[in-house]
Structures are given as C-alpha cells and as structure tokens.
Amino acid sequence: MTETRLRTYTHLTGYGLATLFIMILATQNFRYGFYDLFYLACTLAALTIAGMGYTTLARRQQLRAPGHLFIMAALNGLILVALFWLQEADISYWCLPVILLNLLILPLRQGLALSLLVTVVLTAFLLAREPLTDTLLIAFAAVILASTGALYIWHYDHMAQSAEDLAITDPVTGAHNARFLDETLQKEISRCGVTGHPLSVITLAMDYLEETKDLHGQNGLTTFYRAATQHLFGVIRAGDSLYTLSDGKFFLILPFTPEEGVRVIAERIRRSIAERDWPVVGRVTISLGCTTRTVNDTLADSLRKRTDEALKEAQKRSQDSIWFAEGDLNGA
Ligand SMILES: Nc1nc2c(ncn2[C@@H]2O[C@H](COP(=O)(O)OP(=O)(O)OP(=O)(O)O)[C@@H](O)[C@H]2O)c(=O)[nH]1
C-alpha cells in the first residue's frame, strides 16, 4: 500500500470516528435538552464530514493537502470559543479526542502545535472556574495524550522514512541503487523533454576488476567501492546523482550538462581516481562511457544501453579511458 493511500484511509477513519463520536454527543444533548451543546456538536460534525469529503477529493495529494489544517483549525477554534462562550466545563472533555484527531490528521509539527495550544487555553479556562485538582487532572490527561500520540507518530514517520531509504539505497556503498536509477532517469528524461535542458549520463567501472578481486578479495573491492562512492560524491555537483549498479559499476545522472560538460566532468573523475592511493587496493584506474540525450531519447533504457556500449568501447580501446557515444539525431 502506498503512503498516500495509507494516509487517505487513516484520515477517513479519523474523521469518520470523530463524526460518530460527535453524533452520539449531539443525540445525548438533544435528548436531555442541552440545545446549545446540540448545535455545537452538529457544527463540529459538519466540519468532520467536510474533512471526509476533502480527504476523498484530495486523495491523490494526501501527503501535502493543506485543507486539513483549515478544517482542524476551525474545529479546535470552535470548541475553544464555545468553551468560553457557553461557560460549560463539560466541553473540556470534548477537547481530549480532538487532541488525538489533530495528531492523526495533521503533519506532526502542526498537529502538536494545535494540540498544545488547545491544552494551554483549556487549562487557563479550567483554572479560572474549576477546583485545582480537576484542572490538573484534565490538563495532565491532555498533556499525556498529546505527548504519547506525538511520540507514536514520530516513531512511525521515522520507520517509514528508514524503510523508504533502505528501498532505494545500496547497502554497501550508501549511494542510490539500480531500482531507483530507472525511476529517476525516466523522470529526468521526461523533464528534459518539457524544459529542453541538456542531460548527460556516465557509466563507470573499475579496470582490471577480476585481477583486483583475485589479489585483494571481495573485501578489497567493497572497501574501494565505499571509498570511491564518497570520493565521487565530493567531485560531482549538487543536482547530479550517483547510483551503484550490481555488477560493480557506477552510474551518474547529470542534469543541465551538455556534451562538452560531460567530457569535462568525465575527465575530472578519471584523473582524480587514477591519482589517488586507495585503501587496501592501492592504485586503481577506471574507464568511463558517457552520452548526452538527444530529442529521440525518450526512454531510460536507450540511454543506459548507449552508455554501456560506450563503456565497453572505452575498455576495448585501452584501460583508464573515456568514450563518448553520440546519440541518433535523425531517426527515432
Ligand atoms: N553535471 C556536472 N557537470 C559538470 C561538473 N563539473 C563540470 N561540469 C561541466 O563542465 C562544464 C565546465 O566546467 P568547469 O571547467 O568546472 O567550468 P565552470 O565554468 O567553473 O563550471 P560551472 O561553473 O560548474 O558551470 C560545466 O559547465 C558543466 O557543464 C559537475 O560536477 N557536474
């Protein structure tokens, strides 16, 4: 299930349960003749039903739907105004589920800020009217609810972020993985198609891979891959992205980089790798295949194939070299 869909279900459940709870309150107050509280509950229910409608309408943008903040601010505001207007201490108990609803519907910071605001105003109201022990009891319940809810949501957000990072990161090098490459490259190509900015890519691989493996073992290679990744992150500019492919190759996506630019950065990378003394493996050279997108390149696969061929050509000609593959400008 995607995060967006999960949020949609969570929001619908939150608003749905709140509506049910408020409708029960409305019915009870109507039965006992507390019409002010009945009207208040009906208005609150209208807001939570609006929340359900908004959740359904904005279901594709649940992660950044700003309307929830307005709905929840109105809901919280209405309860606080009613608290002072009606001078009805029973309304203070309505604030407790609202604190949880804030945290469930809104991003953590917004939800927590709104819940703390409600807690402070509620405590001030109770201090002026109710015995100190009752006030402390309700304020304490509100703080416990807000902090436990916030902790739980923070923990969930943290876990979701870690799972997402793991899914797109190579465990050995810490760079992005091949799965994420296809996705990002396709998006980048589509963006270039619209804006017309140049896009270049590079595939690079270590020379004498088998010999190095025989000499230093897989651990030696892994140490080099890790160090090379950190080094490449330092060479490329912000906006470029680096990927580790399964067969010991690296891939670079270089947005806003024309043919002359990719030749410059490829040469810079080649030289900087050859000049260093690497841990465990010592002196190492790499070969690089590069290409620049043409208007006929609409698929990630075609750019990847062309850089792979360019890399093979570079390795065939000599080690420690670069080959640039021209794209087809005439036919698709
Ligand atoms: N994508 C990318 N391109 C680079 C990088 N370094 C150089 N280039 C390309 O090579 C061209 C010439 O780079 P440089 O020789 O560093 O000259 P520069 O004018 O200082 O480069 P910029 O100010 O980065 O444009 C740049 O305009 C880029 O197209 C890099 O780290 N990433």
UniProtKB/TrEMBL annotation:
EC number: 2.7.7.65
SUPFAM superfamilies: Nucleotide cyclase
Residue ranges constituting the GGDEF domain according to the UniProt record: 197-327
InterPro entries: Diguanylate_Cyclase, GGDEF_dom, Nucleotide_cyclase, Rev_trsase/Diguanyl_cyclase
Any single biological process term in GO: cell adhesion involved in single-species biofilm formation
Swiss-Prot/TrEMBL keywords: Membrane, Transmembrane, Transmembrane helix
Enzyme category, top tier: transferase
GO CC terms in record: plasma membrane
Stored Gene3D superfamilies: 3.30.70.270
Keyword Transferase belongs to the record: no
UniProt-listed PROSITE patterns: GGDEF
Catalytic activity: 2 GTP = 3',3'-c-di-GMP + 2 diphosphate
Ranges annotated as spanning the membrane: 12-31, 37-57, 69-85, 113-129, 135-154
Pfam families per UniProt: GGDEF
Molecular function per GO: diguanylate cyclase activity
Annotated NCBIfam families: GGDEF
Protein name: diguanylate cyclase
Organism: Marinobacter zhejiangensis
